[in-house]
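Hi, here's the filled form for the chain we discussed.

Project: internal
Contact: R.S.
Residues: 214
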Amino acid sequence: MQRKVIIAIMAVFILSGCANMSETQRTTGQGALAGAATGALIGVLAGDGEGAAIGAAAGAAAGAAAGYVWSRHMEEQKQQMEAATAGSGVQVSQTADNRLKLEIPSDITFDTGRAQIKPGMRSILDSFATSLLQNPTTNIAIIGHTDSSGSDAINNPLSVNRAASTRDYLVQRGVPNQRIQIDGRGSYEPIASNDTPAGRAMNRRVEIFVMQQQ
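And the returned structure, exactly as it came back:
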């Protein structure tokens, strides 16, 4: 009986944790949540009674640590990028599944409706490329976003093209193309209201994720 209760509680926890997330947020937390669920289930099956609950907690803790590795090199990359982007508006953070995330706002990336990189973004990408070359065991994912102006027929390829332009610039700086994946989310993952110019500007952005596999 206790096993069923614990499994049900874990299921509710996982579903509630994902219910209000955007697709990007779900992707970011996916490894941690899946690891926690697996670890909890193993813990339940390995114990009886009170021991099952303890096993579930231990299994969940171990599972939550699964996914990507946050190594000393990753921490150094984070500090390098924080220093390189200080005062630029770029947000540098560690995600729940141990990826390094750079969120680059539109005022230094792309003009409205354009996919060409603006001059203000080049110095940031130059520093980023240097960091990537110093850490050859990492891979990169670049996600482009737009505001809600225009149709999906315009926004969806525009978001992909913005990610592609960012990738191409990094490749020109020596980063191997095979280390980089790109995607575009159009206007489907806003981080601010599209009802104001300021909100739309925040939604026109590129997100870059760096991850080191185990």
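Let me know if anything looks off before we file it.
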